[in-house]
Amino acid sequence: MSTRDRLVESTRELLRERGYVGTSPKAIQQRADAGQGSMYHHFAGKQDLALAAIERNAEDLTALASEELSSPGAPVERIATWLRREREVLRGCPMGVLVQDPEIIASDTLRSPIAEHFEWLRGRLREILAEDGLDVRLADTLLAVLQGGYVLARAANSTEPFGDAVEGAIALLERATAD
Amino acid sequence: MSTRDRLVESTRELLRERGYVGTSPKAIQQRADAGQGSMYHHFAGKQDLALAAIERNAEDLTALASEELSSPGAPVERIATWLRREREVLRGCPMGVLVQDPEIIASDTLRSPIAEHFEWLRGRLREILAEDGLDVRLADTLLAVLQGGYVLARAANSTEPFGDAVEGAIALLERATAD
DNA sequence: GTCTATAAATTGATAGAC
DNA sequence: GTCTATCAATTTATAGAC
User: Fold this and answer.
1) Mind listing the pLDDT tens digit for each residue in B42-93?
2) Do B141 and B124 touch, CB atoms closer than 8 A?
3) Is residue A14 part of a domain?
4) Is there a contact between A102 and B164 if contact means CB atoms under 8 Å apart?
5) Domains held by chain A: number
6) B33 inside domain
7) Which one, out of A2, A19, B62, B154, has a CA that is 20 to 30 A from the CA of A49?
8) Most A CBs within 10 Å: which of B172, B174, B177, B179, as the mutation test of the A interface?
9) B25 CB and strand C closer than 7 A
């Protein structure tokens, strides 16, 4: 992996672990085993690195969700497959955590790619819900269950609330479909 | 308001706006119009202030939810009242945002009061769901919808996803009750 | 491309006078 | 109780040699 790539991967990890405000250029360099000069050669600064990390996050997460949501099966089955994907819940959602960071929210440059990712997911879920004639607002409900599940799990320091939240939502959805 | 109280209120605001990592003692003092010496007289340091702020958050939020969830009306109606309470969505949940902060998650002292608050809410919701014979796991689903709604709203810089998530959840719940 | 030096500002306290 | 001084460490770079 190139120095540049190591810097981006290091930033992705640190953003997830410590947020944007809590991540220092120095920490990024150390984890990437790169020097100060090297980092500033490849990137203009902290924000530039964060942008690259967020864009790579978006690519990865879009690819995963896209595949799950397009698999064969009934609409609700595909949604359940996506919701039940194994996640490192206690580490937080790579995108969701960022949205709580004051400096990311204050910067359209950094917030936009995150907003676009959620917007894409929402659109894809709406299409699938519409196949079954379900209320398309449920796209936001399902996304919220996932993001909120992470929050509850971290508060409790346990993955249990995440699992319960997801299973509860799937059960409600199945009942709504059985008409 | 006493200097001590102003310091706590100042900390509550800053924790919500900027998180724990992003909040400096200096900023707390300036917003509270208190000097350095004054702050360190009343509190042992940043963590001590955060603890006081979190505890006051918990008191306020518990009082609000307690009242809404105990109002007259059917179980699902009471839950809907609580979910539909007007919130300053784009400012984030005073408790939920904190849970994404690396130093709060790393400190049991700071995380515990937050965990207890969610635990209390979960228990209260379970009691209410049980009244209608509903799956008690839905307590976590509903809490997650709320917390996730905040996340989606902040990502989109719009309150719309929050409203859709909540209304979608209420609609599902009403349908599940109509048996 | 990578390295070292330098730096102004901020962070989170402590010390001691009033 | 409140104030000012001081401080070691960190933050986020920039400059310029190699």
Assistant:
1) 999 999 999 999 999 999 999 999 999 999 999 999 999 999 999 999 999 9
2) no
3) no
4) no
5) 1
6) no
7) B154
8) B172
9) yes
